[in-house]
Each structure stands twice: as structure tokens, then as C-alpha cells.
Amino acid sequence: MKKRIFLSICLTSITAVLLTLFIVTVVLYRNFVEEIKKEIMSASVYIALALDNSSEDILALASYKTKHRITLIDAEGTVLFDNFSDIRKMDNHLMRPEVQTALKYGSGESTRTSDTLLEQTYYHAVVLKDGRIIRLANTTRSFFGIIENALFLLFFIMFIVAAIAISAARLLTKMIMTPIYNVNLESPLDNSAYDEFAPLFIKIDRQNKEIKEKIAQLEAKKNELSCITENMSEGLIILGKDKTVLSANKSAKLLFNLDHMDLHKEHYLSVCRDPVFSKTAEESLSGKSSTGKLEKDGRIFQILASPVLSGHSSIGAVLFIVDNTDKERAEKMRREFSANVSHELKTPLTSIIGYTEIMQNGIAKPEDSVRFISLIHTEGKRLLSLIEDIIKISRLEENSAKDKQELLEPVDISSICSSVVKELEHKALEFNVTLKTRLPETPVIIQGIPITLHEMIFNVCDNAVTYNKEGGSVTVDVIQNFERENIEVIIRDTGIGIAPEHQSRIFERFYRVDKSHSKKTGGTGLGLAIVKHGAQLMNAKVFLSSEFGKGTTVSFIFRS
Fold first, then answer.
1. Separation CA 228–CA 73 (nearest Å)
2. Fold match between 328-389 and 404-559?
3. Average pLDDT in the 180-207 region?
């Protein structure tokens, strides 16, 4: 627009000046010619009067070269006198236009232009009383001749005019464009640049409002979508048709340990180079839905990939990544639990059935019947204990699904620890283990479930006695930390300890360090699983530290 305005002003200015110059030149030239004509007419009239009233010798005065050419012609057209040329060489002038007109009307005039169009001659003839004709002529430059003579000056004037026009155009363009440059498009109705722009400003203001509304709507949808995707626990990755990452939510970055990277426009292999991931991504980008199970860094991911179709062609893909590690582990634990329960129930039942069949078939001697009955009784008690522990874990899991606040009540943890120690005193003497407590003098109250707390403390202390050394010790401490606002129950033993490779699984159901499931120490393998579930139910934390061959420490931390 600026260029068009500049060129328009320049062309208009130059054209106007040149046109004005041309018109003025034409007018001045016409006035100049008219003046010459009037001068010749006046001179011819004066000479005619002089010739009519005096002798012919008056022409001698015109024999000298003057600016006017004087010619005397008789009635037959013969030149009698000419102050510019030799009359002997001149042709007959009777047929000249000005002579013919003079003979007819008493005076006549004509204008003749040279062959080069650079000069023109004006003739004026007057008929004398005696029939002769006096003619005056004056030769001047023609309009084109004047232009030729003034060509350099005209070019100079055109150059000056062009320079002035360009400067003026620049100034005017700046003056015109400055208000436009300063237009505030954010508030178009506040502008006062040109009244002619008012309809445009009104339309811009209306469009601004519509754009702001649409941007606000898009921003709200974007924030809503971003809030949903960024707070998803599942990973979400969107791929473009060029195999680059268009978007990846926070969970996807965390799942692949890429939270420090900006994945936008990166190749999908920057996320993961596993063949399973590549296969699902490639299949979805080719237009097929795909799934895959990816194992990475000890975790298990389920990948669900779907293509984004436009017509019949794929323009991208959406990858939905779910961390199924806990689910897979829970499923594995469920299978192991079922297998272990079946095994644990089958073993005592097999023994009971075997002993009863021996007695039923009369194979056993009478003196052996008492021993078989005792063995049946022992296996039955073990079977009952196993069932009770399974019921306890089921009850704890059922309670975990309920509102915990309904189950919790104030409990004196010191009293429970003291009660457990008393119950295990006989077993401690049997295993030659010293059992002692260090309890505060005042009651220590926590929010808990009395029965579950008793089972938790009892199971840990029972294991500490069972797996201790001859002459070893078990110490139960209850510490109230007022600064940390928590209560610790610490159970230390000087037993056989737990090897590092077993410590992470010690709280799993039916997991035993003794792989042979030896009956020497008894137990169902569910005691520490009950401890873990009970702690989760009461929002307590359990910590285990052990050194193989030196002892084990189990700590419970409850909020006061």
C-alpha cells in the first residue's frame, strides 16, 4: 500500500507539472504568435498608407534587412520589390493564398510551416489604391522548434520536478501512512486516523471479539484436555505421520524416565527403542490397531496403539500406555497364593488321611495308634491354624475396602506389647531365649484395631523367638517421639537373620526363607503377610533391617 501511494503521488505530481508546463507553453506561444500577427498587420497597414500617399521611393527605406520581409507585387503577381531576396529569381506570387485573399477582400493572411516543421512564416497582404499588393512576412520558430531549442532546459525542469515530486511523495506518503501505522488493532474503535476507516474498524472490533471468544473456548478446551491428560496415571503419546512425537503427557515421560526431555517433534524411538514398542508404533502408523506387552527396567507396560485415520489413509497414531506391573505382580501372587494354599492344605490333609487309612485298615499296631492319633491331632491343628490365618488375611483385605475411620479406636500400644510378651514367655523358655520389654511408664495411645495390633506384634515376636539362637534375646521397645509426632514399636532379636536376597519378599504370602517348608519351626508362612496388611489398614509403616547371622530388627511407626 505504501508503495502504491508513493508511486501514485509521484506520477500525479509529475504529470500535473508537465501538463501545466505544456499548457502554459502552448498559451504563451499562441499569445506570442498573435502579437507577431498584430505587429505585421499594423506594419503592413502603415506601409500601405504610406505608399498610397507618397512616392515609391519610400521603399528605399525598407531596402535594408529588417526583421520583417517586405514584398511589393503587381496585379499580375510579379514581384516588384523584396528586401530579402533578388526579385529576378523570384517566381510569380499571384497564386499565393494571402495574395488571392487580398485581391478578393482587400487584405489577406496565411501561415506556412517549413518542411522540417521547425519554422513557420506569417504573411499579411494589403491591396493598394493602384491595384498593387504590399505584403509583409515574419519568420519565427514553430512550436516544435521552440521545444527543440529549449530541450535541455525542459529536461532540467523535468529532473527538478521529478526530484521535488519524489520528495513530496515521500513526505505525503509518510504523513498518510503514519496514522495507519499507529492504528491500535486491539481497540480499533479508539482510533481516529481517518473517518473513512470507521466501517473497517467496526468490522475489526467485531472480529476481535469473535476471535477472543473462540480463543477463550479453545484455551478452555485445551486446558481441560491438558488437565485430563497430564493427570492420567496412564501414558498417552500422539505420533504424527512422519513418526515424530506430537504430544506426550507427563505420565508417559515418567513411565520411560524422560521427564527431563522435550519430546515434541522427536522421533518415537527417542521414547523407547524396544522392539515391542517399535512394532506397535509402526503397525498403528500403517493403519492397524496394535497391542503389546513391554518389560522395561523391571516394570511391565501394556501398550494399546490405535491409528488416526483421515479417509482411508493414516495421518498419525495414538499410543496408550498402562503400567501393569502391580496388576501382573498381584496376578502372579494370586496364582502363587492359590498354589501355596493348595499345597499347604493338601500336605496336612494327606497326612491325616494316610494315618486314618492305616488305622482303618488295621495295619497299625495297637501301641502305634496313640502316636498316629497324636500326629493326626498335630496336623489338624496345623490345618486349623492355616485356615485361621487365611481368614485373618481375608478379613484384613475386606476391612481395607471399608472406611478405616469406622474401625479405628484409641488403643494402648504398651499394654498390647506387654500382653504379647507374657503370652510368649513359655515359648521363650522352651527355646532358651530371653524376652524383655522397655516400655514407657505412662500409657501410649494410638488409633488402631486392638485385635489386629495384637496379631501384628505377636507374629513378629513369635518369629523373633522361633528363629533365634540358643541363649539369644528379643527386646520390645515402645518409643514416643513428640517432635516427630509418631510412636515407634521396635522389636530386635539376636537370631539367625535374613539374607539380603530374601528381605524384599519376606512379607509375601507363604514366602519362607526355608524352601523345604520344614515342619521343625511350624508356622503357615502367612504371619508376616498379616503384619503387612494390618499395618496398611492402620496407616502404619513397617521397616525391616537384618544382617545374616546377627539378627533382625522390625520397626512399626504409628502416627500419634
1. 118
2. no
3. 75
